[in-house]
User: Fold this.
Amino acid sequence: MSSNDTLQAHSDSHPPSPDSKGGGPYILLFFFIGVALSLVVGWGVFPKLLYSQKNQPFDFNHKNHLEMVDNGCQSCHFFRADGSFSGSPRLAQCVECHEEMQGQSEDEAIFVEEYVSKGQEVPWLVYARQPDCVFFSHSAHVNGAKMDCITCHGHIGTSESLKTYEFNRITGYSRDIWGRSISGLKSNSWDRMKMDDCAECHAKYDAVHDSSVQTKRDACFVCHK
Ligand code: HEC
Ligand code: HEC
Ligand code: HEC
Ligand code: HEC
Ligand code: HEC
Assistant:
């Protein structure tokens, strides 16, 4: 028997049916197109539909301002005598310099015309804003635990411009809480600030500094008053 006969005999015993012809590769192709489409929808389209974008009332350059103030971050974000944190700056902290235009930028023009001259507070959008049910204290973290602003906020404090604010259309949460990556992976401590992210750091801290049960910082009432 030659090798040719073997081949012949083999194909005779399995005559290809007309509709299975080439079916395998096509099914695979459709499968991969399907996978690709759902990836595009899941990773590309869905987040765009889910997140709505808003711009800040005008842009603000942290880097420039840091060179002009005497007291670094605290010139604008400081602790009051009672330990509460001032948060976003109020107009009164800006007017000593901005009663009149200081430069030529359009952002400053909006600031001076729409807010300073009308005595109107700027409706800043807060990237780190948590829902009302969450209790957070800057003093416990910054004064107590001596934590750096960067740990939770990233590099906003030295940035040249304020990024676009994104919020979830369904929950209303800022995207800085839910995280940019839909895979749920995070590479920086400031990429996401959901309940688990707060709790994870608390658990680590408690394990190292304080193993007594009464002071555990993972009890619900620590963060929900
Ligand atoms: C120590 C003085 C000083 C203080 C305080 C200050 N600014 Fe400015 N700011 C300036 C000067 C000077 C410029 C002009 C920079 C330029 O255009 O070259 C400027 C520029 C700006 C601009 C144009 C864009 C930019 O950021 O460069 C905006 C908007 C602005 N300031 C908003 C604010 C707000 C809001 C506050 C309060 C939270 C504030 N400034 C506090 C001095 C100050
Ligand atoms: C001249 C005033 C000024 C100084 C100095 C300043 N900031 Fe700001 N900062 C602002 C303004 C105005 C905003 C916009 C308001 C907002 O988003 O809360 C802002 C916003 C922020 C935010 C965003 C908070 C959020 O979630 O929306 C962070 C974080 C921040 N600043 C950190 C810093 C750090 C860190 C420094 C020092 C390295 C610093 N800032 C110095 C005026 C200032
Ligand atoms: C442990 C994490 C953490 C650290 C450290 C931290 N922040 Fe925050 N910051 C937050 C959270 C969470 C919020 C939102 C609070 C809320 O919504 O009640 C916030 C809000 C803010 C806001 C907006 C506040 C408002 O209500 O207007 C500013 C401005 C800010 N932080 C600046 C700073 C600066 C400056 C530092 C360093 C001195 C700092 N933060 C350190 C977590 C942190
Ligand atoms: C990177 C670490 C870290 C992150 C992230 C963090 N915390 Fe904390 N938190 C601490 C540490 C450390 C303390 C203890 C400070 C002390 O007792 O001196 C603390 C203390 C607190 C306290 C005071 C509890 C007490 O009685 O001592 C509250 C409330 C709190 N955190 C809420 C939050 C919330 C809400 C978030 C998330 C939005 C958060 N924290 C994120 C490290 C963190
Ligand atoms: C370390 C701080 C921390 C602790 C401890 C904590 N939470 Fe939370 N919780 C948060 C933060 C921050 C959010 C908002 C972000 C989110 O939804 O992940 C939240 C959100 C929630 C929400 C959703 C509220 C809403 O409006 O969507 C519920 C429900 C909740 N927590 C229940 C609990 C319960 C029950 C416990 C105790 C087993 C607990 N939490 C312990 C920080 C904490």
Summary: The radius of gyration is 29 Å. Residues 27 and 62 are 55 Å apart (CA to CA). The chain has a mean pLDDT of 85.
